[in-house]
Design goal:
8 helices, globular, 244 residues, Spore Coat Polysaccharide Biosynthesis Protein SpsA, Chain A
Length: 244
């Protein structure tokens, strides 16, 4: 991995993913080495297993690997935000820490942001999903409802594989669940979205940390809140400085 100032930061939120740490870091390195100066930021979201120790051991050999730790779990959006705020790259890419997101697609996402003058976000859209039938069903329903209300033109906002401009992300109003509404909020700020089809795969190890019923009602409230934000957005007037 390069030790120079990174142009790209890879942010990986994790909670209790000890056995998935080393394989995923190896894949990220294989995908990016020689292409960008980059750093990998793992945000340890209050893990109670050996996640922190595994990261600390790998950090001794990988100078571009950083670990941020939440004293208690704050959720995926909080972990992503912590990573983005600490990032040194102008472009940030994210992926889930369970191994379902293949790092081989990171270069396509990063390049889509670099090449698009007005692209604020490159979003992965999963094909061939490896989740259970119920989880795929709930995702389809949630995506259809969200798209019908927000009209964000995105069929899959739940995919962890994303790349975006750091400064644009930090412009967004923060709330828990933000990561699921990035396309709508990017469009609200006047930026374009690029889409990249990505192949889903089973997680390397362990079980999901996120359920359905524990976030259903929160998701409905978030959807209403984002709808309100979009409705309240007015076109930004053109600004010119007047000299004396």
């Amino acid at each position: 991995m390069s030790s120079s100032q990174p142009s790209v930061s890879i942010v990986v939120p994790v909670r209790n993913e000890a056995d998935n740490i080393a394989p995923l870091i190896e894949e990220i390195t294989a995908a990016l080495d020689g292409r960008w100066a980059y750093e990998i930021i793992y945000v340890n979201d209050g893990s109670t297993d050996a996640t922190g120790e595994r990261l600390a051991a790998i950090m001794k050999q990988c100078g571009n690997l950083r670990q941020l730790r939440h004293a208690r779990s704050g959720g995926q959006s909080a972990a992503v935000r912590s990573g983005v705020r600490a990032a040194r790259g102008t472009i940030v890419a994210t992926l889930d820490g369970d191994g379902q997101n293949n790092p081989a697609f990171l270069p396509d996402l990063i390049a889509a942001v670099e090449k698009g003058a007005n692209v604020g976000l490159a979003a992965g859209q999963r094909v061939g999903r490896k989740d259970t039938g119920f989880k795929k069903f709930q995702s389809r329903v949630a995506n259809k409802v969200r798209n019908a209300i927000l009209k964000d033109g995105t069929r899959d906002t739940g995919c962890g594989l994303k790349a975006f401009r750091r400064e644009v992300f930090l412009m967004m109003p923060y709330f828990d669940g933000l990561h699921r509404f990035l396309p709508a909020l990017m469009r609200r700020e006047g930026f374009d979205i690029a889409y990249v089809d990505v192949i889903d795969r089973p997680r390397h190890s362990g079980v999901s940390n996120y359920g359905f019923f524990d976030r259903l009602w929160i998701g409905i409230m978030d959807l209403a809140g984002v709808w309100w934000l979009i409705r309240r957005k007015k076109p930004t007037p053109e600004v010119t400085e007047v000299n004396a």
